[in-house]
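Milestone 3.1: sequence recovery, worked example.
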């Protein structure tokens, strides 16, 4: 089969390509706007769903009626807009990916199409898995950490109040008849300052959306590295050799995209590093497939690989030659 038969006819003038690109962009924008309108119509339900982790955390900490507030007239409206943008992009992504595929497909070989199409299908699935992992596991842990840490002093004071007996004569002190010689708990007395959590809708939603988007994007790592491996831009040997740099990079990303608590940072690091190791095996599988095709076509032998590094063999030959020259300095080198 010739190259002309293997690749589709794409010798269209530049103006036709620009016209097609404009139509693809229009379809993509229209799909995004439709998805955004749909999400805005159900904005209240989506907001309740996204605020579910903090509601559950507040109820577990003893608040029977969790309340969130907004302090500006336009705050609630723009909160729904933010939810609509993220939701609309999520809903319309398959259509956007399809339009991108239809634009680049005529310029791809058939084997490139077969390699590229699975990644378009896997990308939104992995994003949804990462988003669900963040919403149901990571965000509740983060909310429990922050709100539980704020309640820790009162918890410790309550334990001390039950464990430490008042000293002798404390009943003679003003207001101490039969009472405790300890400072009043926050919110337990009219004296002192009551510390109460008054959560804002936009700030709480900001943490939730950041975590969902961060984990959804990080779950794209196998897709990205496997696609780079298919294109020859990455190799399993190179990924194994850069593990230590990957660990540092993942730690930096975990510190930047997660709230400042060790729990969520550690979870993100473990998950992303696990995805990195999975990506190494996926790239190795792609390389083995390329080797099988090359052996079937007679390009390489049965014991050879397209991904052997010839520089390693050259270094071995040079080192062996230098060792032989050192052992027999009077002999002439072989031509």
């Amino acid at each position: 089969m010739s190259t002309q038969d293997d690749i589709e006819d794409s010798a269209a003038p530049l103006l036709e390509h620009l016209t097609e690109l404009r139509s693809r962009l229009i379809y993509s924008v229209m799909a995004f706007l439709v998805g955004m309108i749909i999400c805005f119509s159900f904005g209240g339900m989506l907001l309740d769903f996204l605020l579910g982790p903090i509601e559950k955390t507040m109820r577990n900490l003893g608040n029977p009626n969790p309340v969130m507030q907004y302090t500006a007239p336009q705050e609630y409206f723009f909160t729904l807009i933010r939810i609509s943008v993220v939701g609309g992009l999520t809903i319309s992504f398959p259509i956007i990916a399809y339009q991108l595929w239809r634009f680049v497909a005529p310029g791809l070989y058939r084997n490139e199409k077969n390699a590229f199409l699975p990644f378009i299908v896997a990308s939104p699935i992995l994003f949804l898995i990462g988003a669900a992992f963040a919403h149901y596991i990571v965000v509740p842990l983060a909310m429990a950490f922050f709100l539980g840490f704020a309640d820790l002093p009162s918890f410790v004071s309550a334990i001390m109040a039950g464990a430490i007996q008042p000293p002798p004569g404390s009943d003679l002190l003003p207001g101490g008849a039969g009472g405790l010689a300890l400072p009043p708990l926050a919110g337990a007395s009219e004296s002192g300052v009551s510390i109460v959590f008054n959560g804002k809708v936009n700030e709480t939603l900001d943490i939730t959306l950041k975590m969902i988007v961060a984990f959804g994007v990080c779950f794209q790592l196998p897709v990205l590295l496997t696609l780079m491996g298919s294109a020859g831009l990455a190799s399993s040997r190179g990924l194994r050799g850069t593990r230590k740099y990957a660990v540092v990079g993942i730690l930096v990303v975990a510190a930047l995209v997660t709230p400042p608590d060790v729990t969520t940072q550690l979870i993100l690091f473990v998950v992303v590093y696990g995805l990195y190791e999975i990506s190494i095996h996926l790239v190795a599988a792609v390389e083995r497939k390329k080797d099988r095709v090359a052996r079937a076509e007679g390009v390489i032998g049965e014991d050879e690989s397209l991904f052997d590094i010839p520089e390693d063999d050259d270094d071995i030959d040079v080192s062996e030659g230098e060792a032989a020259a050192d052992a027999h300095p009077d002999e002439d080198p072989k031509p």
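The two ends are 44 Å apart (CA to CA). The mean pLDDT is 76.
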